[in-house]
């Protein structure tokens, strides 16, 4: 087993909400440090834990996915790991060179050129000028900044700063690489190139990857930690479980999701037949068929509308659409003069395990003259024993194998 490169033991950091009080506490802490009476694990008035009792070990070839909502403590933890701030309690041991992308443009001198910043960053990492010279062309080519490398960094766009920062951090091949959300700024082509590079250097590097993009996290992480209010709410090698918990913390299901209402038609009720919801979620097995019933009030309308359904994943990305061209195939019951009950069957659901939302749209014709549209008209949770982070889990099997020796 590889020797640990990052060892974090019971790490804690507290901040004060009030500047004046914080300065006073600072003076008191200096005196307590001299007298030896300092108790760093007690909170005082107006203080809070930004990071509390965090511990983990990271070896070469491992990637820790660090997730959590804004203010959970991720950036504070990374700044401690990178040596920018000191912890109030606990211990951090890092062996080898550390490359960090924790803020856009961090580590760059804005008045220096891109080329000069490459040499500065390389020197900070401990490389000699000769070593940097040998990597310079590869860094510039990876960043795609050949025409702008001698321009001051202060004139770079945010995307150019990300490309240069990642190129320096990756091409210098540090022992520990820390990445904090900066890849969200880059274009798709560069992001794909970055992930290919991470795949290449990971066997020789320990990576700490912070992102709100869960597919990105699942793409590279070998373990995961979810922070909430500075504490590790979930920690372990079960990356899919940690990501599931992340989504669950953001799911409320109580807000109004009507995005368009002409006043002519209104969706009054919707449900999955034969399934009892739990917290507005309908649990259905992968590969099963379900019937969804929609009750529609015709307020100032005398014709049956065209109905279509769109399926969105947990990050509100469209993954599927159900369009019923022949409205005559609907099982339509007229309950009274202005209420319709429409039942639609979705067969052989092959959506991957997870939560999905169905958007209901009623219009005059397909994608024309919309009367009513509601997101999350139905929320489904697909049940399966395999966790996949692609939107579909197809039912497949081997039918034949031919071997030639």
UniProtKB/TrEMBL annotation:
GO terms for cellular component: membrane. It comes from the Bacteria. InterPro entries: AAA+_ATPase, ABC_transporter-like_ATP-bd, ABC_transporter-like_CS, ABC_transpr_TagH-like, Bact_Polysacc_Export_ATP-bd, P-loop_NTPase. Residues 25-254 form the ABC transporter domain. Transmembrane segments: none annotated. One of its GO terms (molecular function) is ATP binding. Keywords: ATP-binding, Nucleotide-binding, Transport. SMART domains: AAA. SUPFAM superfamilies: P-loop containing nucleoside triphosphate hydrolases (SSF52540). Belongs to the ABC transporter superfamily. This is ABC transporter domain-containing protein. It comes from Planktosalinus lacus.
